[in-house]
Amino acid sequence: MKHKIITGIISVFIIALVSLIISCKKKKAKDQAKTDNDIITKYIADNKLNAQSTSDGLYYVITTQGTGAQPNASSNVTVNYKGYLTNGTVFDQSASTGLSFGLTSVIKGWQEGIPLFKKGGKGILLIPSALGYGDQASGSIPANSVLIFDITLINVQ
């Protein structure tokens, strides 16, 4: 009988602990989303960009509309890009001929952002950390980093 009571108490404790951890993670994610939004909107203001946003917190600027095909989330595309942090540190860039890949294999910010362009289109994606690498560092990209990409959509397959 004592064993069942102790097991029950432990089960309740574990459930309460898991609930608390989940609650803390949700609050942390909400706080990070606000921080990212503040960083992005300051960057937009400081650089006098005319940006639009999506419901997920992705901001984008289309500087050249493009006239070709528009990709969807599962398209294969060729993109010329330069990726950098808000402090200007470049962490990646393609050759001038671009890089080809399937949109299903890249960060969520690209999955959502690249389909906003038409073939031949150019612009900027300002990606909050939740749509990038989140709270994980990746190479020279620190955890919880806002990512900025200069994009030219070269081709849509």
What does this structure look like?
The chain is of the alpha+beta class and 157 residues long. The protein has a single domain, classed as Roll (Chitinase A, domain 3), CATH 3.10.50.40. Helices cover 32% and strands 26% of the residues. It contains two helices and seven strands. Strands 1, 2, 3, 4, 5, 6 and 7 form a seven-stranded antiparallel sheet that branches. Strand 3 and strand 4 form a beta hairpin. The protein is globular and about 75 Å long. It starts with a helix and ends with a strand.
What key phrases describe this protein's structure?
157 residues, alpha+beta, Chitinase A, domain 3, globular
Quickly describe the structure.
The protein is α+β, with helices and mostly antiparallel strands and 157 residues long.
List the helices and strands and how they pair.
Blueprint: H1 2-46, E1 52-53, E2 59-64, E3 76-84, E4 90-93, E5 99-102, H2 108-113, E6 122-127, E7 147-156
Antiparallel strand pairs: 1-2, 2-6, 3-4, 3-5, 3-7, 6-7
